[in-house]
Amino acid sequence: MSAPRLQALHLYPLKSARGLSPARAQIGASGLAWDRHWMVVRPDGAFLTQRTHPRLARIATELTPDGLRLSRAGCAPLVLPFDAAQPALPVRIWRDACIGLDAGAPAAAWVGALLGEPVRVVRAPRSPARHADPHYTGPDPPPLAFPDGFPLLVCTQASLDALNERLGAVLPMDRFRPNLVLSGLEPFAEDRIDTVRIGGVRLRLVKPCTRCIIPSRDPLTGDPDIDPMPVLRAFRFDPQLRGVTFGMNAVLSAGAGETLERESLCEVTYRDR
Questions:
Q1: In the chain, where do the E strands start and end?
Q2: Quick one: 259 exposed, middle or buried, by C-beta within 10 A (0-12, 13-18, 19+)?
Q3: CATH 2.40.33.20 given to domain 5-270
Q4: Domain positions in the chain
Q5: Measured distance CA(86)–CA(188) in Å, rounded
Q6: Residue 103 pLDDT class (50, 70, 90 cuts)
Q7: What's the confidence (pLDDT) of residue 227?
Q8: Residue 273: predicted pLDDT
Q9: Alpha carbon distance 113, 73 (integer Å)
Q10: How confident is the model at residue 86 (pLDDT cuts 50, 70, 90)?
């Protein structure tokens, strides 16, 4: 087996919209730069994702010098500036109450027209007050923008290959929306990994990722497609977490401000069995 490598990087500037796969990305305590820094919410601040609003998958994203560019079929693109003055709006992600910066009426109208209901678009503050669960991260939990619960998600190519073999189909990795994809490891080695070092960056894998309906949707349209969950449930159900797992949530323990590059070699350490 070849040496472990960082096979791919993915980030998702607008939560539940299409992602980007850059050759390199800066990393900080809250994850990859601009990952899940924008989010769609109801007027009352409750967050929206593809779980209930699959049409979000039809929004393409691009980071430009001017801000986040959103585009979709049949509509002129929209640019959300990085640092425009924006009023604070209370928002909720699961049980977490935090603050988003309202991107304004044009953004709300642009996304609302796609979803067919009133919404707002918000951006995370530069210094988020929301934090990951200290039960898993330890007493100094990292800050979070708008991911579900942790700054980073790590998956391995071998695990996807093993799933596809059982499934009898070829699902792409973007069904699972990871940030880092590692190659050169055994299937589901991530279950036992303690740390991953990539140059000056050190990650700690802290919690299995329980999966929802999103991997069963076409990542470009949000339409129902091949559902991997019944196959995963047969061998990946975690009774303690009460869910099917694929991939590991991770936090940064060293290297804030460093840049990760695709195809970099990785050093992996494992927890005791």
A1: 5-9, 24-28, 31-32, 38-41, 60-64, 67-72, 75-81, 88-93, 96-102, 120-123, 152-156, 180-183, 193-198, 201-210, 237-238, 243-254, 259-261, 267-270
A2: middle
A3: yes
A4: 5-270
A5: 43
A6: very high
A7: 97
A8: 59
A9: 12
A10: confident
